[in-house]
Amino acid sequence: MYLSLASWSLPQCTLAEAAGISRALGIGALDVGLFYRAGLDKALILSDPQAAAAELAGLGVRIPNYYHLFGDGLAGRNLALPGTLEANLHDLAQVLSFTDAADIATVFVLPGIVNPGQSRAEAARVAADSLREMVALAAGYRTTLCIEAHVQSWAESPALVARLVEETGVRLALDYSHFACLGYRQEEVDPLAPFAAHVHLRQARMGDLQAKFAHGTLNFPAMFGTLRDAGYAGALTLEAVHQDYMNTLSEDVLTETILLRDCFNDWTGGL
User: What is d(CA 145, CA 65) in angstroms, rounded to the nearest whole number?
Assistant: First the structure.
């Protein structure tokens, strides 16, 4: 396992500046996405994947993951919205061509929301149908497709996520904070570890998607051990954020990033 830094943790930094901070902190890896000043050009990714990949050359960091949104925000063209599959499959093929060209190991998308007129069960069925076809498409690429189950999606419980994995074969961008926020105990999330293709790290507690390192309930050394024992060897992305979503505006991102970095480095020092 190794550390990475989420480019969207630094909303006022350019991509080059975020990469420089990752190097300065001794991390040396950076997740990329479509957000804030470090955001990639979505139109270029979809129209010319090779050119988009070439723009990442020279950053001087490893890029383990790309976070893609098919539409705008959580609702736009989400996986649980009927009638979106054809367009999303077209875009996914371009995205996977981009990530393969850029040597990005994983790409994650969101599972979708409960759309107007839907029940949670209906949203789950549509999303599962979409993901089965997406997983089949991704089998032809080196990049691994995964989803991040998140607060406000239809897949908010470990049981729902496990069922989705069983039905579709999709891998996970596993983030314990989304489950902790909703009141699930860490040991209830641990069974998802064998399905992780990517991992996000952020301290949290019931009611708070993000908490200061000393104030949250997640036991990171235990989490690292669970992931290691499950055979996980990928990136652990430090994802403290400063954004309006779920009131994650109150923490000093740089301080929280360093505390999480040191926690992981201390744990690995005992191996």
Answer: 10
CATH number at residue 68: 3.20.20.150
Contact assessment for residue 147 and residue 162, using Cβ atoms and an 8 Å cutoff: no
Please report, in angstroms and rounded to a whole number, the separation of the first and last CA atoms in the chain: 12
47: its two tokens: 């129209």
Cα 43 to Cα 94: distance, rounded to the nearest angstrom: 11
The tens digit of pLDDT for each residue in 156-180 reads 999 999 999 999 999 999 999 999 9
Other CB atoms within 10 Å distance of the CB of residue 251: 19
What amino acid occupies position 137?
L
Tell me the pLDDT tens digit for each residue of 190-249.
Answer: 999 999 999 999 999 999 899 999 999 999 999 999 999 999 999 999 998 776 765 666
Based on the number of CB atoms within 10 Å of its own CB, is 187 exposed (0-12), middle (13-18) or buried (19 or more)?
exposed
CA distance 8 to 17: 12
What residue numbers bound the domain in which 264 lies? 2-268
- The total of structural domains in the chain comes to 1
